[in-house]
Design goal:
The protein is α+β, with helices and mostly antiparallel strands. The chain is built from four helices and nine strands, in the order E-H-E-E-E-E-H-H-H-E-E-E-E. The chain has a five-stranded antiparallel beta sheet with strand order 2-3-1-9-8, covered by helices on one side. Helix 2 (81-90) crosses helix 3 (100-111). The radius of gyration is 16 Å and the shape is globular.
């Protein structure tokens, strides 16, 4: 089990890295092996890692493609990733890790979500962000085994494995004197 978190400011701007870390820390129990935090113009991503497949640090997330344009945060396991990886390698794709995360990233980039998703056998939730356009593709497995919550406004998208991670980003927070038990 891992934890993912992200905020995308559609109009761009600086994303507070300390708030990304706070959000990720609310999900530490989902992945005690490492916390990864990444920010770019208008984008902040966090990941709590429970290492299952590739135990090396090079498989830490958020995971960026070789161009640095696309970032992926992923929770779950793709059971058929070896077969998918072999198909991608036959098409000329090279890999720098042995993780299912990297296979998912390049499957999505090469085929698009509509073609890639039906091929996945596993339990998962992910968000793929185009860091140039701030376009986000999010999905979870067909049975919802891995949670993916989101909150969207005209200016911002927030997503996470658990809604507690939204706390630092919500403009309206209840005060102790106004909350009934």
């Amino acid at each position: 089990m891992c934890g993912i978190f992200g905020v995308v400011e559609f109009k761009g701007g600086t994303v507070d890295k300390s708030l990304i870390r706070q959000s990720a820390e609310t999900q530490t129990h989902r992945g005690p092996d490492s916390i990864g935090v990444f920010t770019a113009d208008g984008v902040g991503l966090g990941h709590n890692r429970l290492s299952l497949v590739d135990l090396s640090e090079r498989a830490n997330q958020p995971f960026l493609d070789e161009t640095g344009r696309y970032a992926l945060v992923f929770n779950g396991e793709i059971y058929n990733f070896h077969e998918l990886k072999a198909d991608l390698e036959a098409e000329g794709q090279s890999f720098r890790t042995t993780s299912d995360t990297e296979v998912l990233l390049y499957l999505l980039l090469r085929q698009g979500a509509e073609v890639a998703l039906p091929q996945l056998n596993g339990m998962f939730a992910f968000a793929l962000v185009d860091l140039k356009t701030r376009q986000v593709t999010m999905a979870r497995d067909r049975f919802g085994m891995k949670p993916l919550h989101y909150h969207a406004t005209a200016d911002r998208l927030i997503f996470a494995s658990e809604t507690a991670a939204f706390g630092p980003w919500m403009e309206m927070r209840p005060h102790a004197g106004t909350v009934a038990a």
